[in-house]
Amino acid sequence: MIQKFICLDCGTYCGYSSLVLASTLREIANELQNSIMEDQTEETFEFHVYTTEVSSKLINVAQSVFRMAKMEQYITPILMKSDGKESLSATMKQNGVMGIDFLLFDHAKNLYLSDLNDLEAGGLLKAGSYVSADNVVFNKLDAYRYHMEQLQAKGVVETRLDEMNLEYSKNLKDGIEQTIYLKDP
Amino acid sequence: MEASSSNNKQPNTTDKITRDPRNGAFTFQVHAEYDLLLQIQKDLDAKRPSKSSRSSLNSLALSDIDSTKIILKSVDDYCYGKQWMYHIGSEKGKAISRFLRSGVERWLRRDDRKNKVCIYISCVLFMMMLLAMMYANTAHCISFT
């Protein structure tokens, strides 16, 4: 059975970030396919992107965007309840996801840490999982960054802050916390 | 918030902010998402090969990767030129894409993944040996009868 590389993008909005993930993975798949044709490697690469959103209106917009991009077969949007009480790990398991290789947080800022803890406790994040968390500087997500620093001190993760401007602005500072799990949490 | 008159402005095609300051960071327009969809469709149509140049095999149709690049550029142009929205944008998009790429490279080298391939190959070899032994036994029996 071929293992798939699984991404979870929390916060679909209009589908921009899911398209960034899916197009990067499609490019990698093409590169590996070309390598196979040149007999340099025997690797095959399959992937899937899941994305969660609380607004049905935005899910519809994103699905239109995915169709226009011809990427709908690689991306599954999942509508979540807006009260924040639904367990993300349980929802993912209901959709057949048993592990997440790449996680992007760009949804409700107050849910980053609780969703991370839920995914850790649910066994979906493991050694080798990568996690990007957007807006940690602009939204001052110090508790999330502190949690990652604590995990780093214990040798569970490697984490760094990529500082850059807030999207489509010139003077507003922001950053992405980029974390790699070295051990199972 | 009602859509302002500046919403009639065309999006720009560079990373410079040319939108009306009233449409800056953390301002929101009603139905901006649908306006964006129309802009994306317009930009995709402009990049598609014309009917006269399109081959019967549709070989000139845009690939998924090409379509996606056009869409991401269209969204960026819209947000710099017309209305700020909270997509991750091109700068963060590139940073996340690089990080994802390093994650995939690591995933492809994973020991447990390689071990699974080794187990699979071992199983196939074992089955082949078993079949060879069964065939040899059958041939041996036939030679005695």
Helices and strands in order:
The complex is a heterodimer of chains A (185) and B (145).
Chain A: E1 4-10, H1 16-37, E2 46-53, H2 56-68, E3 75-79, H3 88-94, E4 102-105, H4 112-121, E5 130-133, H5 142-153, E6 157-165, E7 173-181
Parallel strand pairs in A: 1-2, 1-4, 2-3, 4-5
Antiparallel strand pairs in A: 5-7, 6-7
Chain B: H1 32-47, H2 64-81, H3 89-108, H4 111-144
Helix pairs in contact in B: 1-2
Describe the structure.
- The complex is a heterodimer of chains A (185) and B (145).
- Chain A is an alpha/beta fold and 185 residues long.
- Chain A has helices spanning 16-37, 56-68, 88-94, 112-121, 142-153, and strands at 4-10, 46-53, 75-79, 102-105, 130-133, 157-165, 173-181.
- Chain A has five helices and seven strands; from the N terminus they run βαβαβαβαβαββ.
- In chain A, strands 3-2-1-4-5-7-6 form a seven-stranded mixed sheet, with helices on both faces.
- The longest helix of chain A is centred in the first third of the chain and has 22 residues, at 16-37.
- Chain A is globular, with a radius of gyration of 17 Å.
- With 145 residues, chain B is mostly helical.
- In chain B, helix 1 (32-47) crosses helix 2.
- At the A-B interface, helix 1, helix 2, strand 6 and strand 7 of A face helix 1, helix 2 and helix 3 of B.
